[in-house]
Design goal:
The protein is α+β, with helices and mostly antiparallel strands and 251 residues long. 13% of the residues lie in helices and 30% in strands. It folds into two domains: 3-29 and 134-250, Beta Barrel (M1 Pyruvate Kinase, Domain 3); 38-124, no CATH class. The protein has three helices and 15 strands.
Length: 251
C-alpha cells in the first residue's frame, strides 16, 4: 500500500521550509502558502506594478547561494508572520507584506547570499498562485524508493529536504512516479493530473543542515539514469485534503 509519509511547504521561495500534518488543496491552485512570497534579486526581470508568475532565475534560491538551503521556517497563517532560522544568523520573525519587515528580511537574506551573484532586492508575489518552478500552478510529488535509489547511487543517505518537494510517498517502486505522467492519481480526497518530471538544479547538491554543496546528485542522476529529473509535478484536478498516512491510488 502506498501512503503519504511527509508534507512540506515553502512559504518563501528558496528560503526555508516547514512540515505539515495535513493540507486542504483547491483544484487549479498550488499548495496554500507554498512559494507565497519570493525574493527578487537586483537583476530580476519582474514588474512589481503588474505581478505575475516568473521563472525561478529571477529570485533568490539555493542554486545561486548555497547557504540559503540551511534556512528553516515556521509560518503563522493568521498573522502572516514567518519565523526564519539559520545556523549562522539570529532568528527573525517578519511579515513579508509589511514594508519595514521586508527590509529586515532582505538584509537578513543578503548576509548569507553569494556576493558574486545578484543580491536580494525586494519581496515579490503573484496575486493568485504560488511562485512554483512550474509555469503551471502545481505541486511536486516524490517517492521514498526513488530517494533510496539515488542515495545508494551517491553512496550516502540523502535528506528529502534537498529536493524542496510538497508530497512524499512510501510504497511505489523507484521511479514509478514517472509512469504516472499523463495519468490521474488520488491522494487522500484530492486528485491530481501528473504533468511532467521535475528537472533538478544545483540546489540538490547542498546539505540542508550546513548549506554546503557536498553531494554530486546531478552527476549521479545523469550517469545512472540518463537524466537529471527527480520527482513529478501534479496539478490539482479535484479539491480535497491530503494528510499524513493517506493512501495513493492511480486512477
Amino acid at each position: 500500500m502506498a501512503n503519504v509519509i511527509n508534507l512540506w511547504r515553502h512559504p518563501i521561495k528558496g528560503v526555508g521550509r516547514e512540515q505539515l500534518d495535513t493540507v486542504a488543496l483547491t483544484a487549479g491552485k498550488t499548495m496554500p502558502w507554498d512559494r507565497h512570497w519570493a525574493i527578487a534579486h537586483t537583476d530580476a526581470k519582474v514588474d512589481p506594478a503588474n505581478p505575475e508568475w516568473a521563472y525561478c532565475m529571477n529570485f533568490a534560491r539555493a542554486a545561486r547561494g548555497y547557504r540559503l538551503m540551511a534556512i528553516s521556517s515556521q509560518l503563522d497563517e493568521a498573522s502572516g508572520i514567518i519565523t526564519l532560522k539559520h545556523p549562522d544568523l539570529e532568528t527573525i520573525a517578519v511579515n513579508p507584506d509589511n514594508s519595514d519587515d521586508a527590509k529586515v528580511l532582505i538584509k537578513w537574506i543578503t548576509e548569507i547570499s553569494n556576493p558574486d551573484r545578484s543580491l536580494p532586492a525586494q519581496i515579490f508575489k503573484a496575486p493568485d498562485r504560488g511562485m512554483t518552478d512550474s509555469g503551471t500552478a502545481s505541486l511536486s510529488i516524490y517517492t521514498k524508493a526513488s530517494l533510496d535509489a539515488l542515495s545508494k547511487a551517491v553512496g550516502s543517505p540523502l535528506d528529502q529536504r534537498r529536493f524542496r518537494g510538497n508530497i512524499w510517498l512510501d510504497g511505489p517502486d523507484a521511479w514509478e512516479e514517472f509512469n504516472w505522467i499523463g495519468q490521474r492519481i488520488r491522494i487522500g480526497s484530492a486528485e491530481f493530473e501528473i504533468t511532467e518530471p521535475v528537472g533538478r538544479c544545483m540546489a540538490t547538491t547542498v546539505n540542508p543542515d550546513t548549506g554546503l554543496s557536498d553531494c554530486a546528485t546531478l552527476d549521479a542522476l545523469q550517469s545512472n539514469w540518463g537524466h537529471k529529473d527527480f520527482g513529478v509535478f501534479g496539478v490539482v484536478t479535484k479539491s480535497g485534503t491530503v494528510s499524513i498516512a493517506d493512501r495513493l491510488e492511480v486512477l
